[in-house]
Design goal:
By secondary structure, the protein is of the alpha+beta class. The protein has 18 helices and 17 strands. A hairpin with a 7-residue loop joins strand 11 and strand 12.
Length: about 625
């Protein structure tokens, strides 16, 4: 994983929280709620990979493209699944069927991620804008797509709206989301047991109640987790901070009055308003003065027992419980509060001051309690998010505090970290940046945000970023599907799509720093993969592409179980292929699948088809970056 190995393999760390959810559902909590629509979920048929023992699935056309489209002046590549060993003829036609380009494919052999025999094709020379383009090979036609600019502006908006949809403690207003998605506030004062406004601690943790209202629901469940909220809110804030530092970045689409948030019109960028909803919750999770472990952060708050599916948040009758403070959660609070302090300074100086005070207090508390580690076994009613190595959290928190304050205490802390300067440690090959590996967040900000680093120190940090980006770019270039992701042993992990995106964030940052098109092209090829140019011919983002995911695991967006409930909202990212198959449905349906084929769009396939805040956050970040490239 990196030079300072964790206590468990990366695949386990990234998926640990998810497997605990799987155990609960497998025990019958959610399966008891299955209805006829779920039981009648479509059977898939047709060949999948090589060999009769492989699971069957309908992947549609063998010609795979980005089903949304290709920027006018970016790379335009695709893949065709074929047993042919010699080049084939491809033809690009417009919406009227007129031939616009043609050529021959390049044999690529067997794609290891899917075990498919494939060839690739390249039509990058085509720059004529238009909708309804298709590529035909051997009589098989691709899904339609667009060539043009401004392809991803709506995706950025939809990906960010995901967070408002999943706010806790506030009514979700139909004027922002429409009738189907509007709902009463979840877990507010009116809820049973007063919801999160008077949350009690689990036995033995504390003898008082806390107001920990607000924030975002983490995933398909109703839990709120500081360590997963931390990386998510950091990436939302970073999407805005990038507009202050990166050449050509446009802040306007993230500005006041541009997003679907009720705070619009208050003079602050809407993306920061959304981030503030989570930051307020994170700061409420800090243990108050005078109490044991004062200054630390409670690790999480969620239901006492797992709720069934579907369950709308305002209909949840389970009492809510706080779980013990942890060093990891405390450092997540320190890092994000420090970042918030500098970003909110121009808009609310008092709030910025409070954020910095919270960050300093959290840092000091973590230093005083460096080994209060979250348990892997605390998984009743919510995910465990256990973490036995917090050196990465210390690195991230020190970096953010230094950037904000310029103080040598924090500079020394990250410069003397064993992770500093080690690209493999900061950006692990296997799982990349994730909730369990956050040091890279600090390195990205040190490399891009102006501060008090010496020229030599900044150059060294930037070198680690570009070194990691070179590795991810090579993954993309060697892949028949262009995906900048190549996990050790070839096994795709839980939430693999988020790892693809987090690798793309590193690539995009390297492009911002250097201007090298190699990095930009790898990001664009990653978008191709996510939006249909993959072994399953599947767009993993709801509402984008002809064959998009629509049945992700979620307790309210559960149309597959109850037709009166909605599908996931546009811009919701499915977790994607997971070699572990850690839910009963996937185990049965996908047994024997090749790594990139271990996915099914079913609400009960939660180990491949869950949605979460920390998967949508890098989607929003990357959508903003790509949209900037098209201007």
């Amino acid at each position: 994983m990196h030079s300072a190995p964790r206590t468990r393999p990366a695949l386990d760390r990234a998926g640990r929280r998810r497997r605990t959810l799987g155990a609960a559902v497998a025990a019958g909590l959610a399966l008891g709620a299955l209805t006829a629509p779920a039981a009648a979920a479509a059977d898939h048929s047709g060949p999948r990979g090589a060999g009769a023992d492989r699971p069957k699935v309908d992947t549609g056309s063998p010609v795979r493209v980005n089903q949304v489209g290709y920027p006018t002046h970016g790379p335009k590549k695709g893949t065709v699944v074929t047993p042919a060993t010699k080049p084939l003829t491809w033809t690009l036609r417009d919406a009227d069927g007129v031939k616009r380009a043609g050529g021959t494919t390049t044999p690529a052999g067997i794609d290891r991620s899917s075990r498919q025999k494939v060839q690739t094709f390249d039509f990058s020379e085509v720059t004529a804008p238009g909708k309804g383009y298709t590529v035909t090979i051997g009589g098989k036609k691709s899904e339609p797509f667009t060539i043009g600019d401004n392809l991803y502006g709506s995706l950025r908006s939809d990906a960010l709206a995901y967070f408002y949809h999943n706010r806790s403690g506030i009514k979700i207003d139909k004027k922002f989301v429409g009738d189907a998605y509007a709902r009463p506030a979840g877990h507010d004062r009116k809820a049973p047991h007063r919801g999160d406004t008077e949350a009690r601690c689990t036995k033995g943790v504390c003898d008082y109640r806390r107001d920990v209202s607000g924030g975002w629901y983490d995933a398909g469940d109703h839990g709120k987790y500081v360590v997963n909220g931390g990386i998510s809110v950091a990436q939302l804030m970073s999407s805005y901070e990038r507009t202050l530092t990166a050449p050509g970045a446009d802040a306007a689409p993230l500005g006041d009055g541009r997003l679907r948030v009720p705070e619009r019109g208050n003079g602050a960028p809407d993306v920061l308003d959304e981030a503030r909803w989570e930051m307020d919750f994170l700061m409420r999770m800090q243990v108050p003065k005078g109490k044991p472990f004062a200054g630390m952060a409670f690790h999480k708050v969620h239901d006492k027992q797992w709720t069934g599916i579907p369950t709308r948040p305002d209909q949840d009758k389970q009492p809510r419980e706080l779980r013990a403070p942890s060093t990891a959660a405390t450092l997540n609070l320190a890092a994000t509060a420090a970042q918030a302090a500098r970003l909110f300074q121009p808009y609310d100086a008092e709030y910025a001051k409070r954020c910095l005070e919270v960050a300093r207090t959290a840092w000091d508390a973590a230093r005083a309690h460096p080994k209060k580690l979250a348990s892997d076994r605390d998984a009743i009613g919510g995910g465990a998010y256990g973490d036995r190595d917090v050196r990465d959290e210390f690195y991230w928190a020190a970096s953010e505090l230094f950037i904000t304050t310029g103080e040598n205490t924090y500079r020394t802390a990250f410069l003397t970290s064993p992770l500093h300067g080690d690209a493999d440690a900061l950006f692990p090959r296997v799982s990349g940046v994730s909730w369990a590996s956050v040091a890279g967040l600090g390195a990205l900000d040190l490399a891009t945000v102006p501060g008090n680093l010496t020229g030599e120190q900044r150059a060294a940090v930037r070198s680690t970023v570009t070194k990691a980006a070179d590795r991810y770019a090579s993954f993309s270039e060697k892949s028949a599907y262009g995906v900048p992701y190549a996990p050790k042993g070839g096994k795709y992990e839980w939430g693999s799509n988020s790892q693809v995106l987090n690798n793309m964030v590193v690539l995009a940052t390297a492009h911002d720093l250097t201007g090298r098109t190699r990095y930009r092209d790898a990001v664009l090829r990653g978008m191709d993969y996510l939006l249909g140019g993959n072994p399953l011919n599947q767009s993993y983002v709801t509402g984008y592409g002809e064959r998009d995911s629509r049945n992700q695991h979620h307790r309210f967006w559960a149309h597959q179980l109850d037709p009166k409930l909605p599908h996931p909202a546009r811009g919701s990212l499915a977790g994607g292929p997971n070699s572990g198959l850690e839910d009963p449905l996937s185990k049965k349906k996908l047994k024997g699948c090749a790594p990139a084929m271990c996915y099914t769009d079913d609400i009960m396939a939660f180990s491949t088809n869950e949605i979460t805040i920390n998967w949508n956050a890098p989607l929003a970040w990357i959508s903003a970056y790509v949209d900037d490239q098209e201007r």
